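#data-curation
PF: Archiving a pair of folding outputs for the training set. Convention for this channel: one message per protein, sequence first, structure tokens after, nothing in between. First:
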Amino acid sequence: MKKCRARIISKKELCEGIFDIRLRTEIAREAKAGQFVLVFPNDPSRLLGRPLCICEAGGEELRIVFRISGPGTAKISGISEDEEIMIEGPLGNGWDIKAAAGKEVLLLCGGIGAPALLQLAKILGSQKGKEGGPKDVKAVLGYRNASMNSFLASDFEDAGAQVIIASDDGSTGIKGNVIDAAKTEDIKADVIFACGPLPMLKAVKSFAAEKGVPAYISLEERMACGVGACLGCVVKTAAKDAHSHVNNARICTEGPVFEASEVIL
């Protein structure tokens, strides 16, 4: 884990309020799929970093795709190309890639949860058909409506995933959420990886239990320190946590990825 300045290589708005920023930083060399970074707004009045998932990482380039959700992320979205910003990471535990070995993989991406799964899709796509790799990868991406431009869908296709689109109002793809789309398409899966809003993840947990397959979920949560010291981002767990000796886990350190059966949503 490092805290250092990163230079903005490029910035674009994928759809209203959702930004795609590429950074040049040595942190990219260490980043793993499913981890996150703390991004600090260039504003001395805002001391806490904003936890943003790592969308892609390789060499010295790190990509973050995020939605403006408050003043901090609004400040980050306003940074110009070639400016620098302070970041810290990589943080958290990412996806269990070995869990996909020899499996039919289903990625369930709810809205802004999609960026957390793209690097995983790329890794699995490159391993597909090889020893230790997945049999196949399907990705269901859910959006509110067509105005979201099915952002990142083409990236998942380029990664080698078969992509199914869903939208709440039916203005693009299948009408309904990602679970509705998976059922409509009668998708068979041996393992599920998912990220999205909490109601969706609750549905994913139930869907996976119904199918009798393991599900790995990435939890989105507001954070303060981001390194496990403040206990500000905990989730109830089935087992007692070795750190706090109660039934919870810190999303920033034990997570953000958990096996769905381990957490109480």
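PF: Second:
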Amino acid sequence: MGKIKSAEFVVSNSEVAKCPKNPIPEYAFIGRSNVGKSSLINMLTDRKSLAKTSGRPGKTQLINHFIINDSWYLVDLPGYGYARVSKTSKKKFQKFITNYFEQRQQLVSAFVLVDIRHKPQPIDLEFIQYLGESGIPFGIIFTKADKLKPKAIERYVEDYCQQLLKTWEELPPYFITSSSKKIGQEDVLNFIKATNEEIEQLRNQ
């Protein structure tokens, strides 16, 4: 398994140009506010408070870089669809999120977080569409799986996949997770580990 031995905060900023310069693989986590992103990051890294969890959704308002095992970056991005920030702020956030995705060459994959308890939301589907049209590789992470029974999870994921197949020829990789029950930790980390190994092989060819 792609076990995490070390995880350290590196830098927060709102400008892509100020992101770390070293050419190591980067994985960006993004989703609607209140989707459980900070809890997921803490669960993946086995750290209680690496990413700040908050009772108030929309607290992440910067691009946050964490170095993992000294070999790849985990990037915590602001949620889209804040309920409580002004339109001007929302525009500003959206701008640097799109700047990040369109300019960041180190980005290997985005992970779009989706709350497994809700039907496919237009805002998530639009964002997934945006990533596809921009040619940005991504996976989907379904969060809060502990809130549903296994049969309901199966049905939900099936519905979501059917919705995606209306506009996609093939499905992106997807992962079912629960931060409180540590479900999916191994699947996500193994995917990142395998991807990093592929990148390394290509570099050495």
